[in-house]
Amino acid sequence: MAKVKTLEDLKRMRESLQSELSLRENSDTPEKLVQIKVSMATCGIASGAKETMSFIMEELYRRKIDAVVTQTGCMGYCHSEPTIEVQLPGADPVVYGNVKKERAQLIIDQHIIAGKLVDGIIPGIYSTPDNK
Fold this sequence. Notes:
Elements: H1 7-25, E1 34-39, H2 42-47, H3 49-62, E2 67-72, E3 84-87, E4 94-96, H4 101-113, E5 121-122
Parallel strand pairs: 1-2
Antiparallel strand pairs: 1-3, 3-4, 4-5
Helix pairs in contact: 3-4
């Protein structure tokens, strides 16, 4: 944990810890919320999964989107790391590959908020209206 040198450092730390706490509290009723699982096996971590997970958590908190964000082990898609699974309430889970910050932003904007699938789904049996 970083040292607190200023009041601003303390405020940032408080906000970060509050967002993590609210994500944990939401896990009591996950079926009613957006669920995101980030693959954190060795290959995922080496590909940037920690940074992806941090960005997703910060962005969901910033936008006040109720969600449960968890980490999981290997999903079996080492060739497409970092990978995440997104499940909207009442919908089937969707796995996305090569999810860095930019793709995570697109997934939040289009899939989580607008309910539209984004290109890059694994396995490739899914399609969006644009790539049929």
